[in-house]
Design brief:
Number of strands: 0
Number of helices: 14
Oligomer: single chain
Shape: globular
Distance between the termini: 17 Å
Largest sheet: none
Number of domains: 1
Length: 311
C-alpha cells in the first residue's frame, strides 16, 4: 500500500511538473511573435538558447557549486541535445516552411503517438484500452485546442519531416532521462541544452556564411531585453527543467500528452493582455485533461481476481 501511495504521489508530482513546463513554454509564443518583427529566425533561436543555457549553468553553480559542473557528462549530453532537441526543433520549422502552420501543428500534435510507440518498442510498455482511449482523447483535444482546419492540411514530404521532428523530440526527452539516471533533472537539462544551443549556433553561422535570411541581429531595446529573458529563461530554461523532471516521473508517453495543451495556455496568457476567451480551445483542453486522466487510470480488478489475490 505504501509503494502504491508513493507511485500515486510521483504521478501527481510528474503531471504537475509537465503542466508547469507547458505553461512556462507557452509564454514563449507571444514573446517570439513580438521579437520576430525585428530579429531573424536563426539569430533569435540561437541567442534564446545561449541565454537559457547560461541561466541553467548559473543555477547549477549556485545550487551545487562550480566544482559540480566539471563532473557532468557534457559530451554525451551535448549529442543528445544536438540531435533530439536541436535538430528536432529545426525540422519542425522546416516542415512549416514547406507546408503551412496547420500541417506543422498537426505533425506536432502527433507527438504523444510517437512517444507511446517509443515506450512500447524500447521499454516494454503494455497498452490497455484505458490508455489507448486516453491517447485518442489527448490527440483529439490537442487538435481541437489548436483550432486546426483540416481543409488546409497537406500530406507530403513536409508532413513526414514534421513527424520526424516530433519523434526526435520524444527520443531526446526519453534519452535525457534514461541515459543519466544518476543526475538530477536540473543537471540533465543543463547538459542537453548545451547540445541544443550548439546545433542552433551551427545553423546560424552556416546561414551567415551562405548569406541566408534569418540572421538579423538588431540593437536590443529595453522591451527586447525583457522579452528575450522571458523567452530564454522562462519559456526555455525553467520550462525544459520542469519538463525533464516530469518525464522522469511519469514517462515520455504521458508527459507528451501535456504538450498538446499549449494552445490553451497561450490563450490564457493572451487573456491577461485583453484578448478574448476561446471556447473551442477551452473545450479542447477539457477533452485533453480527460484523456490524461483516463490514460493513467488503473483498471479495477473484479471480485474474483480480488479474492484470488487475498488467498
Amino acid at each position: 500500500m505504501w509503494s502504491k501511495l508513493k507511485t500515486q504521489n510521483s504521478a501527481t508530482s510528474g503531471n504537475l511538473s509537465c503542466m508547469l513546463a507547458v505553461g512556462l513554454f507557452s509564454f514563449g509564443f507571444p514573446a517570439a511573435n513580438s521579437l520576430l518583427e525585428t530579429w531573424g529566425l536563426f539569430s533569435l533561436i540561437t541567442v534564446r538558447n545561449l541565454l537559457g543555457f547560461l541561466f541553467l549553468v548559473g543555477l547549477m553553480a549556485f545550487k551545487l557549486g562550480i566544482g559540480s559542473l566539471r563532473q557532468l557528462p557534457w559530451v554525451k549530453g551535448f549529442w543528445i541535445g544536438f540531435f533530439g532537441f536541436g535538430i528536432g526543433s529545426m525540422l519542425l520549422l522546416l516542415a512549416q516552411s514547406m507546408t503551412n502552420a496547420v500541417t506543422a501543428a498537426l505533425a506536432a500534435a502527433t507527438m504523444p503517438i510517437c512517444a507511446v510507440a517509443l515506450e512500447v518498442a524500447l521499454d516494454g510498455k503494455r497498452l490497455t484500452l484505458n490508455f489507448l482511449a486516453g491517447v485518442a482523447l489527448v490527440v483529439l483535444g490537442g487538435l481541437t485546442a489548436s483550432g486546426i482546419q483540416f481543409g488546409d492540411f497537406q500530406l507530403g514530404l513536409g508532413f513526414l519531416i514534421g513527424l520526424c521532428s516530433a519523434s526526435l523530440f520524444a527520443c531526446g526527452s526519453r534519452a535525457t532521462v534514461k541515459r543519466f539516471p544518476e543526475l538530477t533533472p536540473l543537471a540533465r537539462t543543463t547538459v542537453t541544452t548545451l547540445g541544443m544551443t550548439g546545433f542552433c549556433a551551427f545553423v546560424f553561422f552556416g546561414a551567415l556564411v551562405f548569406k541566408m535570411p534569418g540572421t538579423t541581429v538588431p540593437t536590443p531595446t529595453d522591451n527586447d531585453a525583457i522579452l528575450l529573458l522571458i523567452y530564454a529563461w522562462c519559456a526555455l530554461a525553467l520550462s525544459q527543467w520542469m519538463w525533464i523532471r516530469g518525464v522522469g516521473q511519469v514517462g515520455i508517453g504521458v508527459a507528451s500528452f501535456h504538450l498538446n495543451a499549449a494552445p490553451f495556455y497561450v490563450m490564457l496568457i493572451m487573456l491577461l493582455f485583453g484578448y478574448g476567451w476561446n471556447w473551442l480551445q477551452a473545450i479542447g483542453a477539457f477533452i485533453l485533461a480527460v484523456g490524461v486522466i483516463m490514460a493513467q487510470s488503473q483498471p479495477k480488478m473484479d471480485s474474483t481476481v480480488k479474492s484470488t489475490h487475498s488467498r
